[in-house]
């Protein structure tokens, strides 16, 4: 199993969610995040004084999937989140040892 | 000022009652205006400095302030007497002009309140609250009250003897608050992180609401200063509206040219700058004059707020850039735009009056600014040497809301201290680049 984490622009969240549903991914976790990549943040102006704000708002999407579909899921997220403009985000995958469904105690792929 | 009519005029009294309530509303409005401009961690402290000024100034005003400002002159136009200490000798039947004396005293009290509250903008985020509680009454008696007597008191040297004009308080309110704010922030020193950290306004809608309430109250401030329901009040009212508008537009114009963005903070600041400048002049200038006074204030003040970065004094919320500079502009321009139909005598440069009036205005500005700066600096140093004027480093770092008042303004439920990660972690090593 793989944990796939995606940091994307907040307004692409719906697109990513729909793409994952089409692939048959049952569940996902979304959290608000902030940070910056190579483009850094943005500039704000207050009474003529400019402030460079580093951390820009993002959403973090996390899904755990079976190894076999991991590449397809990554591709789907990248396609849905892509705008071609700076700040589109990142997607990465990590191996997952164990998953347990709290309600039933099922383990492994059955728990997904 | 003490010429007694047989009895109060009901129309004048009704208008002044309403105007007094309007001016009192300016202080809570100012609290929101200032409160929105500080960071999340000290917004309640900022609100408190205004609200507590209402209570402190009212008490000292009733005790002795009114008598010293508006009692019979006791020393060559410099200070009033003690005849009305504790408001003694004044009852419901006492009349000042065409309004009850107690109403006149209350109307003037609201001016003293908002002036004290204005000073707090210069010391935001770092003044010790207990020191503010001591500063306000002492300052009101030693700085505001004498200047109010000079300008409006019976026999006051500025208006009655020198002949300089100030309709609604450019000298005692705007210039005094600006010069006092400058003095106090010099004693206090800059906020931790000044010119290094971003200190963004935490709530601009709150700033806009505060500016709106200030503007609303300002009609009572300026039109109420006619002390009657009459044509002069109406003219002052219209001038006030006109100057606020051109001030707003002037500031936005500068921002668009300089920064490429017309901002909400700029709109609020520009309107206030225009209103500040028309305060002394609303009862003496033509409508054209009012439009120019507002525009000049909007344009000049939008540059003046960056002086603090160049000259290295941390006037946190730009009391100097907006109130001192705006007040000077408005007071001086009386010497240019005064018209006989408004003043009943004096005329400005543009209307054939020559340089005489401008000279009188300039002298009044210099003396009042120097007096307010000097005495406030002295009070500030004295408080600093005895009880301390500045909050501790820990209080300032954590925020005065939590450390002084044991409250936080917002429950964001993230880090506990009332601030979400996204608003508290703003670029620790950021440049602050004033564009002007």
Automatic annotation (TrEMBL), chain A:
Concerning PANTHER family, the annotation shows: NITROGEN REGULATORY PROTEIN P-II, NITROGEN REGULATORY PROTEIN P-II HOMOLOG
Q: Which GO terms describe its cellular component?
A: cytosol
What processes does the entry annotate via GO biological process terms? regulation of nitrogen utilization
Task: Indicate whether Transmembrane helix appears among the record's keywords.
Answer: no
| Keywords per UniProt | Nucleotide-binding, Phosphoprotein, Transcription, Transcription regulation
Q: Which GO terms describe its molecular function?
A: ATP binding; enzyme regulator activity
Q: What is this protein called?
A: Nitrogen regulatory protein P-II
Q: Which residues carry this modification: O-UMP-tyrosine?
A: 51
Q: Name one Pfam family in it.
A: P-II
Q: How does it assemble?
A: Homotrimer.
UniProtKB/TrEMBL annotation, chain B:
In the bilayer, the protein is annotated as: Multi-pass membrane protein
Q: Name the major location.
A: membrane
Q: Could you tell me which Pfam families the record lists for this protein? A: Ammonium_transp (PF00909)
**Got a GO cellular component term for this one?**
plasma membrane
Q: Which residues cross the membrane?
A: 14-34, 46-64, 102-123, 130-151, 171-190, 202-221, 233-254, 261-279, 285-305, 317-338, 358-380
* Domain Ammonium transporter AmtB-like intervals: 14-410
Keywords attached to this Swiss-Prot or TrEMBL record, sorted alphabetically, are:
Ammonia transport, Membrane, Transmembrane, Transmembrane helix, Transport
Q: Does the keyword Membrane apply?
A: yes
Tell me where it resides. Cell membrane; Membrane
Per its record, what are the GO molecular function terms?
ammonium channel activity
Query: Is the keyword Ion transport in the record?
Result: no
Q: Which family does it belong to?
A: Belongs to the ammonia transporter channel (TC 1.A.11.2) family.
NCBIfam families listed in its UniProt record: amt
Task: Specify the protein name.
Answer: Ammonium transporter
State the species of origin.
Streptomyces luteogriseus
């Amino acid at each position: 199993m793989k944990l796939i984490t995606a940091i994307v622009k907040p307004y692409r969240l719906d697109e990513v969610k729909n793409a994952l549903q089409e692939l048959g991914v049952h569940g996902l976790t979304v959290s608000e995040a902030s940070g910056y990549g190579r483009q850094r943040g943005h500039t704000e102006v207050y009474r003529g004084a400019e402030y460079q704000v580093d951390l820009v708002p993002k959403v973090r999407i996390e899904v755990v999937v079976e190894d076999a579909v991991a590449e397809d899921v990554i591709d789907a997220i990248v396609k849905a989140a892509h705008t071609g403009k700076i700040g589109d985000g990142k997607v990465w995958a990590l191996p997952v040892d164990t998953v347990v469904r709290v309600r039933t105690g099922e383990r492994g792929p059955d728990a997904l | 000022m003490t010429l007694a009519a047989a009895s109060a005029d009901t129309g004048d009294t009704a208008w002044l009652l309403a105007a007094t309530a309007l001016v009192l509303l300016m202080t809570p409005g100012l609290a929101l205006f200032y409160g929105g401009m500080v960071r999340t961690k000290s917004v309640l402290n900022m609100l408190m400095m205004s609200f507590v000024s209402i209570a402190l100034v009212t008490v000292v005003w009733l005790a002795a302030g009114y008598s010293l400002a508006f009692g019979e002159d006791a020393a060559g136009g410099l200070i009033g007497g003690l005849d009305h200490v504790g408001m003694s000798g004044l009852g419901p039947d006492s009349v000042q002009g065409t309004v009850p004396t107690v109403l006149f005293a209350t109307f003037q009290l609201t001016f003293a309140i908002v002036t004290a509250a204005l000073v707090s903008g210069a010391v935001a985020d770092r003044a010790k609250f207990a020191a503010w509680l001591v500063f306000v009454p002492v300052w009101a008696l030693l700085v505001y009250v004498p200047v109010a007597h000079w300008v409006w008191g019976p026999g006051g040297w500025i208006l009655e003897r020198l002949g300089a004009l100030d309709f609604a308080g450019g000298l005692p309110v705007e210039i005094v608050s600006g010069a006092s704010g400058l003095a106090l922030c010099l004693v206090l020193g800059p906020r931790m992180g000044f010119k290094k950290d971003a200190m963004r306004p935490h709530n601009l809608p709150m700033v806009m609401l505060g500016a709106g309430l200030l503007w609303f109250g300002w009609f009572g401030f300026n039109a109420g200063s006619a002390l009657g329901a009459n044509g002069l009040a109406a003219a002052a009212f219209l001038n006030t509206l006109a100057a606020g508008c051109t001030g707003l537009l002037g500031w936005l114009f500068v921002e668009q040219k300089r920064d490429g963005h017309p901002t909400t903070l700029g709109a609020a600041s520009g309107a206030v700058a225009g209103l500040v400048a028309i305060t002394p002049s609303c009862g003496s200038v033509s409508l054209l004059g009012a439009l120019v006074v507002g525009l000049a204030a909007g344009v000049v003040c939008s540059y003046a707020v960056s002086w603090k970065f160049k000259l290295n004094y941390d006037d946190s919320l730009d009391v100097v850039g907006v109130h001192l500079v705006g007040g000077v502009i408005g007071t001086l321009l009386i010497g240019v735009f005064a018209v006989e139909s408004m003043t009943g005598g004096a005329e400005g440069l543009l209307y054939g009056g020559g340089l005489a009036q401008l000279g009188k205005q300039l002298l009044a500005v210099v003396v009042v600014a120097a007096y307010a700066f000097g005495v406030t600096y002295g009070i500030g140093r004295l408080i600093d040497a005895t009880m301390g004027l500045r909050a501790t480093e820990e209080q300032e770092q954590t925020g005065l809301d939590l450390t002084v008042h044991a409250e936080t303004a917002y429950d964001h439920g993230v880090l506990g201290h009332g601030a979400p990660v996204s608003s508290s972690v703003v670029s620790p090593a950021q440049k602050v680049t004033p564009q002007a």
